[in-house]
Amino acid sequence: MTHQLKRILVAVDDSDASKTAVDEGIALAADDGAEIVFAHVVAIVGEQFVPGTKEPARVPGPAETPSLKAAEARAADAGVACTTELLVGYAPRQLALVADDRDVDLIVVGSRHLKGLKRVLLGSTSRALLAESTRAVLVVPYVPVEEAVAV
Predict the structure, then answer these.
(1) H or E segment at 68?
(2) What is the mean pLDDT, run by run of 10 residues, along the chain of 151 residues?
(3) Residue 126: per-residue pLDDT
(4) How far apart are CA 151 and CA 145, in angstroms?
(5) Strand 82-89 relative to strand 106-111, pairing
(6) 111 CB contacts (<8 Å, ≥6 apart)?
(7) 10 Å Cβ neighbour count for 51?
(8) Residue 138, CA distances (Å) to 44, 46, 63, 65, 76 in order
(9) pTM for this prediction
């Protein structure tokens, strides 16, 4: 039995991995007639060690960043309804909180497949989100063009 998606949360930033996640989220939403919630989190370093709240930390006013505007435009081109959220804090926690608050069926996030020191320093948002969230999470891999050509 398949489950029809009604609302999908897509994590958005300015990375190529995020653009891949946006494309996947739009394709899924178009297939199921679902609405997309695009969310961008302005990170606060060290906030992951602060006890969490039960509500997402929304930035007041219109949710506008270049990455959110680009995602909205791509959804509009595909005929997919969307809304946006601009949040502040530890990205995995904020994404999990807004997913619960907006009652999404699926969270879509890109993965940059960081290795070595970069992974240690920057962490893995997708991995931490899997630990934070009670919702289904789809991690969309990003493969740079130069790596894809070599395969």
Answers:
(1) helix 66-77
(2) 86 92 97 97 69 76 86 97 94 95 96 54 73 93 64 51
(3) 85
(4) 10
(5) unpaired
(6) 17, 124, 126, 139, 140, 141, 142
(7) 4
(8) 24, 25, 24, 23, 22
(9) 0.84
Phi and psi at 54, nearest 5°, equal -95, -5
Token pair for 15:
């990375």
Amino acid found at 82: C
Tokens of 84: 């946006």
Instruction: Retrieve residue 54's tokens.
Output: 């039960």
Fold that domain 7-150 belongs to in CATH: Rossmann fold (3.40.50)
Position 1 scores a pLDDT of 47
Give the helix, strand, coil percentages of the chain, each rounded to 5: 40, 25, 35
Report the C-alpha gap between 66 and 7 in whole angstroms. 22
Residue 72 contacts residue 112 (beta carbons within 8 Å): no
